[in-house]
Amino acid sequence: MTDLCADDLATIYGNPTPRVIAKARPAIDAHARKFIEMSPFCVLATSGTDGSVDASPRGGGIGFVHVAGPNQLLMPDRAGNNRIDSFRNVVEGSGFVHLLFFVPGIDETLRVGGRGTLSADPDLLASMVEFGKPPRAVLNVAVSEVYFHCGKALMRSKLWAPEKVQRSVMPSITEVVYEQTGLGEPQSQEVVEALYKTQL
Q1: 141, 81: one domain
Q2: Residues in Cβ contact with 109 at an 8 Å cutoff, skipping those fewer than 6 apart
Q3: Are 42 and 101 a contacting pair, CB within 8 Å?
Q4: Percent of the chain scored above 70 by pLDDT?
Q5: Eight-class DSSP state of 133
Q6: Most confident among 6-10, 79-83, 104-108 (mean pLDDT)
Q7: Of 138, 142, 47, 143, which is closest to residue 94 (Cα–Cα)?
Q8: Helices 189-199 and 173-181, packing angle to 10 deg
Q9: Which pTM does this prediction carry?
Q10: Which of 13, 147, 167, 179 has an alpha carbon 20 to 30 Å from 27's alpha carbon atom?
Q11: Euclidean distance between CA atoms 200 and 186, whole angstroms
């Protein structure tokens, strides 16, 4: 297999249309704001000092990411595994972040890019209590680019189709990690889900 170079790409892919270029906006408009305010889930992408890239799922109640202005987003950070790969990249790496927002039932997605900083200001944390707890920190994104992706990828994947994989086809995450590492205790999916509910 031969790796492609930049010249090869030009022979495979045509030029984007003017409309595709123009849809990348410099700020959050009314349509993007509405989409973010309906979204309970996004993926956060960051880059590290060594050029590595991290992509991390983030979720909460509908509209958990707050639109603080046309060029500012505030995303609360909830309990996780404490690896904080994304946040290390924000404070030690380039600071550039991208968020990809999903709304269940809508095939289009929204991509928002900018520079991130972190805050643990007590008043800010107190203003974002969810699941009975304040966040541990808040990601502040200075937005510089916003655009909608067409729905083809989600349509191809049938992501929102009613047919779903039964959870029982995979072992629980603790069973997987125990088999991979020999660390911790393997627990049933029912136990894992009960624990999740106490840690949201």
Answers
A1: yes
A2: 100, 101, 102, 148, 149, 151, 153, 154
A3: yes
A4: 100
A5: B
A6: 104-108
A7: 47
A8: 110
A9: 0.91
A10: 13
A11: 21
